[in-house]
Design a protein that fits this description.
Blueprint lengths: L4 H9 L2 H12 L9 H13 L4 E4 L3 H5 L16 E7 L5 E7 L20 E2 L2 E3 L3 H21 L8 E7 L7 H8 L6 E4 L7 E5 L1 E10 L14 H21 L4 H4 L7 E8 L9 E10 L5 H17 L2 H5 L3 E9 L2 E2 L5 H14 L5 E4 L5 H6 L5 E3 L14 E3 H19 L4
Parallel strand pairs: 3-6, 3-7, 7-15, 8-14
Antiparallel strand pairs: 1-2, 2-6, 4-5, 5-16, 8-13, 9-11, 9-12, 10-11
Length: 423
Amino acid sequence: MGLTDLQRAAVGAVDPGRIQSDLAGLVRIASVTGHEEEVQLEIVRLLEGADTPVERITPTPQEAAADPDWPGAEMPRASLPIVLGRLGRPGGRRVLLVGHVDVVPPGDLATWTVHPWGGAVRDNLLYGRGACDMKGGVVAILEAARVLRSVADRTALAGELVLAFVPSEEDGGQGMLAAIRAGVTGDVAIITEPTGLEVVIAHAGAITFRLTVRGRAAHASMRREGVSALDKLQVLVAALEADEARRNESETDPLMTALGLPYPTIVGKVRGGDWASTVMDRIEADGRYGVRLGQSWREAEAELRACIAAACEGDEFLREHPAEVEIVGGRFSSSSVPADHPLPTGLASVAEGVLGRRPESIGEPYGADMRLLVNEGATPTVIYGPGDIRVAHSADEHVPLDQVADCARVLAAWLVKELTTER
């Protein structure tokens, strides 16, 4: 599509230098999940500096956990700070731009070649924990809102723009759900998670589970008198591997089959044993179980429990001593919007006009706050943002500064289309 004069003005107003400065500043704040207060103060400062009215929502973690649809948590926290910016007039069309401000821990610092909280720039890539997931997208939102403010009279906007910056996405999404309960819903929403500037219209989900597996202790010299919980865990892992294959092979949606393994299952943490020469009588294993497209996390939980129950029933010892299954962390359902919905098609058209390339509509295997906006907030939502998800959570995480600027340009032009009289 061709761009209007106002859209071209918005695209030209994006400031790459300001983007780099803002992003480096955010990356230097170690906003690991559960500790988002400082980064939210910086978000408030940036919004106020752009003459954008700010609203803060501060539910307690206890209040959030009392919600019947609470999406879980994996990190302790004392607060749940949510920051909103608003432009335009309430009561009409409402557009949401959404980003999370929490990041995962940096891991082993010896695996980094740059400081994870340094915001270093090399070859137009800005490095640091959260640069890709998803402070680059957060800065694109801030820049797009600044640009809209500069090129369009906010009193004449034909609707309302809400910028939502939420905590706790990485461990479930209780920040987003709390925002939704406070009224942060709209006609359409874009989440600027890293997609390489493709448009995500469908995503899988995941649940975090814990298996408690029993055995029978014995002295190592009399190993055959005992039953190793480790051996029994291997029985269950084999069952989970077969279940993973079956669930993935049964998928027929091209958005998901294109991913190869859209619903992975892993065991990522194992704890057990008290003494090197004692047969283990108890193991705890934590893992991740994929939620299929079209499924809620509760439906996936039922499949997981059925898989483990069947494996226990088929083993002589586990039949009498079945493993316990708990859901202990994030609960990510799946979600999608139709490929022909005006949100993805309209965004793709604007992106083509700005960048000269029409983005693909794709699916992803990971969970995201999109499912809360779609399922709980009744808000059609897509994910569109800078960066490569393959470097998220990794050592030397980074985002191309050019992509952050391009994302801001597309968002700015799209906002002009959605919220001005040129729409």
